[in-house]
Design a protein that fits this description.
It contains seven helices and five strands. The chain has 191 residues and is of the alpha/beta class. The chain has a five-stranded parallel beta sheet, covered by helices on one side. Strand 2, helix 3 and strand 3 form a beta-alpha-beta unit.
């Protein structure tokens, strides 16, 4: 109920502030369940401008099963972005076993954006994989993983990781004009 109320409020604000060129996007992060399904219904996700799918539990699957789980999730037409692809927490938890190249390939095929989680504890997806993602045409979104306004500062770590990965402004959705962001977010849903 809260999410639906938030979506309604965002739509109203967008209408009210359209002449000023202001645009809010309604989005949510959803959990990728063990079988690759998602914890939100398609009906709810269809009302959002973007959906970030992420693994938040059951990290100890064999590589083939984890890879299949993630690919199934990003094949959902409502999932616009994959969050923290490997789940690593630097100095705390290693990445789970996943075939990153296969996930990048699936993201390219499905038009799914991959997050570069800029938290200093994550920096996930690792900068070494971004060259391949870029070659495949996968867009990046640098997200600070902020749980408060103070956390927004982490975006600088994501920018530095993106530069190490040879990404340029045109590869990063956050750097695009709003009209292009709208196109990128709608693209998957209309393909």
């Amino acid at each position: 109920k809260r999410l639906l109320a938030q979506i309604k409020e965002i739509k109203e604000l967008n209408e009210e502030l359209a002449e000023e060129g202001f645009r809010l996007f309604a989005g949510s992060e959803v959990d990728i369940l063990k079988d690759g399904s998602l914890d939100f219904s398609d009906e709810i996700m269809a009302q959002l401008d973007y959906v970030v799918a992420s693994v938040h539990n059951v990290f100890n699957l064999p590589e083939a099963e984890m890879t299949k789980r993630i690919i199934r999730a990003i094949e959902n037409p409502h999932v616009t972005m994959l969050g923290h692809l490997t789940g690593r927490l630097l100095l705390q938890r290693p990445a789970y076993h996943v075939n990153v190249a296969a996930v990048i390939e699936a993201a390219a095929e499905t038009g799914t954006i991959i997050e570069l989680n800029a938290s200093a504890w994550r920096l996930d997806m690792d900068w070494r994989w971004w060259k391949l993602a870029k070659e495949k045409g996968v867009k990046c979104s640098i997200n600070p993983d902020a749980h408060s306004t103070h956390g927004l500062q982490a975006v600088i770590y994501g920018i530095k990781a993106a530069r190490k990965g040879w990404l340029t402004r045109k590869d990063i959705i956050n750097c695009l004009p709003v009209s292009e962001v709208e196109e990128v977010l709608k693209k998957k849903r209309t393909d």
